[in-house]
Amino acid sequence: MNVVIGVGNRWRRDDSVGLEVVDALRERVDASVVLIESDGEPTRLLDAFALAPHVVMVDAVVTGAEPGTIHRFTDKELPARMGIGQSSHLVQLFETIELGKILDKLPNGLILIGVEATDFDNGEGMTEPVAAAVEPTVRAVLGELLPL
Amino acid sequence: MTSDVRKIDVDYIARVEGEGEMHVKVVDGKIEDVWFGIFEPPRFYEAFLEGRPFSDAPDITARICGICPIAYQMSSVHAMEYAFGASVTGQLRALRRLIYCGEWIESHVLHMFLLHAPDFLGYESAVHMAADHKDVVELGLRLKKAGNEIVTMVGGREIHPINVKVGGFYRVPTKKDLETLVPELEWARDAAIKTVKLVAGFSFPKFEQDFEFVSLSHPLEYPFNEGRIVSNKGLDIAVAEWNDYFLEEHVERSNALHSRIRSRGAYHVGPLARYANNFEKLTPAARDVALEAGLGPVELNPFKSIIVRGIETLYAVEEALRIIDQYEEPASPDVELNIHAGVGHGASEAPRGMLYHRYELDNAGRILKAQIVPPTAQNQLTIEDDLRVVLEDSLDLPDSELTWILEQSIRNYDPCISCATHFLNLKVERINTK
Description:
The complex is a heterodimer of chains A (148) and B (434).
Chain A: E1 2-7, H1 17-26, E2 33-38, H2 42-49, E3 54-61, E4 70-74, H3 93-102, E5 109-116, H4 128-132, H5 134-144
Parallel strand pairs in A: 1-2, 1-3, 3-5
Antiparallel strand pairs in A: 4-5
Chain B: E1 2-8, E2 19-27, E3 30-39, H1 41-49, H2 57-62, H3 69-84, H4 90-121, H5 126-132, H6 134-155, E4 164-165, E5 168-169, H7 175-179, H8 182-200, E6 214-217, E7 228-231, E8 236-237, H9 242-245, E9 246-250, E10 257-261, H10 271-278, H11 284-292, H12 305-326, E11 342-350, E12 353-361, E13 367-373, H13 375-394, H14 399-411, E14 423-432
């Protein structure tokens, strides 16, 4: 079984890209691929990690690259300090992944496909470069799925 | 003139549901300015709601906060029902309390274990803490899940629950559905007591403020959805009178509105306020555990809010068990609405404090005007007051330690991700003119 988790918020413009990719995947995969929408909430993410040994996540990221750039990280490549400890409220995605490592709740293979995003303002609709990245991101995700 | 400006930025990844900024200016060793700024989505949502049908309000406002969607749904449905003169009673009312229990458990536990506890135990984050306290983090994750399960069962979906509507629910759970939650909630009751004992053992800065605690108060229950708005300094008003007694002000440098009590000033909403105003309405077990944990019936130290969150978690678990025990599936999932023009007011107790909604509706039930006052905006002045006092005592600390205690002070209020802050940019500016 493959699990694909799209992370995002449909009401914060480019932040919806992970969910848009999951929407697009619905018509392209069969029941052997479990598609999950997440708002990044850590306990539900950790539960989703436990569903399969191989998990692909899709999320908006900000690294300073060109908007729409598609990044690929494995959990081992994620910079250990990235985003940790500075959040006043939510436990961030990378923090959740780190937490999963410590609590032995990570799948063997965790791939994060990140889409470089710029606009996280309130509202619906993505910026043009991010919207244009949805289809190539879908193909990138399909390329990560393990054969049954 | 020399100046030493330090700025800490966090700007990496998504989950940008709200942003905050704290700015501290110290001139010649004296605090000149303390500013805790939030960028506030409710303003956007107020405008977004105008022209939409009343029935959109619960779903749309639920998106304001990823952590407390139920609070937004509840305040909005109560406001609409007020406008239409509808009354949701009996088991439907109980189900609303039940889903709110779930949200309190989720939100309080997340905050206690993954955000606030690391401050007290000297860890930079939950991840750093988990390496040494795996069992503590696992306790928290399982307890939180007990809350998640309630919200999913009654709310109909994992994230952005969609089952709540003006007048009741789209569908109601069966008694059997709810009973499946019981074994884990029974475990959660013990886990909540264990949690209170754990956090009560932390060491707390000696710090008390003469707060005006504002919360709902109901004659029979610890408040979630209903009651009058009261304070420990004599306020006692109907929810519909909110704008007569409170004032939202634009503050320079921020697009957020600060709230104050007219002619008085800052006030405090959230667990400490609810607890102080409603101690007698807690379950006997929750009261006993609170007293054993060293709390009085009123607690003035905001750092001890972590203990009160534990008490409220215990209360929410016990209340959920009571509601499930007494549940009988209602004949209809909702009540009929008589839609007409009017003004509606609703207030409910979000995990981090009272959340007020007001709507003006036309004859077809379309929203003409919306007002949403989130708890963190209400606490903003109080947070700044606390920061000023903490700073007075801590000015000699190096910036890293100062940052730590200031962040911890802000976290006492569990500021809302979206209605307040997610990325906290802290800027300490020290200027020496001599």
